[in-house]
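Worked example 4.2. Below are the chains of a multi-component assembly; read each line carefully before continuing.
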Amino acid sequence: MADLSARCGPLALRNPFLLASGIWGESGESLAGAWAAGAGGVVTKSIGSAPRFGYANPTIETYERWGMLNAMGLPNPGIDEYPKEIEIARRAGATVIGSIFGGDADEFARLGARMASTGVVALELNLSCPHAEGFGTEVGSDPKDVEAIVRRVVESSRLPVIAKLTPNTSDPVALALAAERGGASAVSAINTVRGLAIDVRLRRPVLAHGLGGLSGAAIKPVGLACVWQIYEKVSIPVIGVGGIMTADDALEYVMAGARAVEVGTAVAFEGIAVFGRLVRELGERLDALGFSELEDAVGVAHSAPSASSG
Amino acid sequence: MRSVVPVTERVEETPTTVTLRFDYAAAAAPGQFVMIWVPGDDELPMSLSYTEGRSKGVTVKEMGSTSRNMQSIRPGTLVGIRGPYGNTFSLDPGRMLIVGGGSGAAVLAPAAEAVIARGAKVTVALGATRAPELLFRDRFRRMGARVEVSTDDGSEGYHGFVTHVADRLLGSEPFDAVWTCGPEVMMRKVVDSGSRHGVPVHCSVERHMKCALGMCDACALGPYHVCVDGPVFPAERLTPLGEFGGFHRDSSGRRVGP
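Applying the procedure described above to all two chains together yields the following structure tokens:
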């Protein structure tokens, strides 16, 4: 069986499939459960300075098997309460990456320092939630802001920092370059794509917040394009996110340049057992394709010979 | 996917509970719940109190502002429905003891109907704060169940807690299984009685919910998610968890007291 271990800058993962932030990450038992189900690592809910209830329901709209729109509103228990959940996951042996969100570089730096003291192996900065006023995309769309935030968190935490980037921009590569300049160890791309659903009978948006973020199979081509473009211009590792339901989906991201991937919406459609299946199927797929290790497949699509050169 | 349907009927069951009926064709089984959206307000998980046929129903207890708004809905008002979600009571016929506290009877009534239809012999221990709050007492009687009533104030039936009635029944008669729904401290006592008398207990558990798809973690209960692993749990899964009858999580995910 091919070697599935993934090296993502300073991070060594037993396999490339990370539990995406926002999924199953509110309780330590759930993080531990995702690890036990086979995830290569788990990313926490995005944690802020204070408890947040998030938006009223409806927070979710689903589209058969191809997508999901959500506006949860960054619910989280806050950095004072959350370390006990991380401790439960760490006691279960999980590799935990702590996701944080703040309104400016100062808040990110404070949260980064706090999160770093919980024993997480890395920080992921939520610079990309598309539906929270004052956070996420609103502080992660300008490369200057991204660079400043990343730099401050790197200084305050001394942990590997992953910048999670938005696709809701004309130039995701500029954001990735900014994260690299700020000292990020990796970038993850993409967060959800801004979207909307309207109930025609009620003549109103379905989600209580109105705008939401689209995830699931529908956004895989968007994520792949971002990873592809970023890989060509940025030298730090890329983590691919968006619509990964099968081992081939993951392998597409790897061949586009990703060294690890995050899985989220698939958990809603299949349950946490999706991790065990993805790990098994990726091993079989790599064997069938003649790769002895995952590393060998990273970015290979960029060096494919052109049809005319053959 | 959700449906938007008009409420067809509104019934005031007790001073604090209202049943809303609506046409919703999706197949449902006793124990399952739907997410009901009051447009302009919130969306809440509600166990189905009527599961058979096209006309489904939920029985709403006033808990906060959204459930209060839900109770005031008049026939013809449009609501959003998605589901049904969650697991079901296993309807193996036998000698059943059903223990309902307050609005917990809402999910137990359709389960009792279904299991009686399969030939079960059903005894219901039905408890409430006072006589007018005894939910579905007459419905349980009409379906052929024996009903043992208790009220906290003694205004009808046994003067005391339904858990005492359940414990006495379990100690004096043979039962094959117990189903219970109500406040968690009550269910915990029923579980203790069941284990003392060697009768398996299933509990219908309530937690805060958002996605109802096993994804957002709002309804995390130990290693389980109530929306997909429940809401019906065998007691032996719950008793090792400190949080059963102990704590729940608020909308932010913080652990808060019972």
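Take a moment to check your reading of the output against the notes. Chain A has one domain: 6-303. Chain A touches chain B through 44 residues (CB under 8 Å).
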